[in-house]
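The records we work with from here on pair a chain with its fold. Here is one such record, which you should read through line by line:
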Amino acid sequence: MLKICVDIGGTKTIVGLINEDLKIIDSKKFETNKVDPTAQFNEILKIAKQYVTDFKSIDDTVLNIAMPGPCDYTKGLFLNPPNLQAYNGFNAESYITEHSDFKPQFVNDTDAAILAEYQYIEDGVEDFIYLTISTGVGMAYVRKGKIVSGVDGNFGEIGHTVIKSNSDYKCPVCQQYGCVENEISGSAISRKASEILNRVVSTREAIQMYIDGDNKAVKDMIEEVIKLTQQLCINLFSVFNIYYIVLGGGVTQSSLPYKESIKSYATAHHLIRNSTFNVEVSHLEANVLTGLYFVGK
């Protein structure tokens, strides 16, 4: 049975048809409308309705949607999402049910991703964390084989917890200095490199400069980003009493040495000595979109 799944990101949205083997049968991608949620969901519904018309063996009531938090995922209600500020207060569930016959279900994007990762994680692992570092930063947690979602689906919103107390950058969203998202995300790397070089520098360019050793200030900045990420991960190992983290997102899939550096840092500093810490970089494509197949199961 095919299901229609939707991954709404801060920059792009993907609507896809997923089968029970987590294969993407078809997908449509478009730029996320950051200023008009009504237009955004009209486009989603247009694609979804066309899928129902064009494909057989499709569950024509299912519309599983991953939305960037924070949201009240039990209601499909956006609650001040940092990268989609114009969506604050928009009720996606009400809009969809008023304009279609779909019965939407909503989850955090990292929750959808960890559902896909769990299908492929090594045998015997029932407790692990998925940490994504991309435009923003988020996490999800599987405990005894079950996802932990929190009261309203916002478990793991670590992007706006403080990790650098002496930071001089004040987050425009949470109004704190040194929050995780503004210190270690791809956006943070780009912002910091741009400040150093006094021109616009993309995340990709900054990382390449680090690899090539082209600029000492950029190199030092990224080394601090890696160190802060190590400290974040040992916090996760300790607080959740887990020994397995899967890294996702474009930044961790770059050439930066996240996997080995996090493992070595945890081994050196975790209070429980001689523990084995597993850190893996996700190799799944579109894990958010495919993980949505399991929402509601």
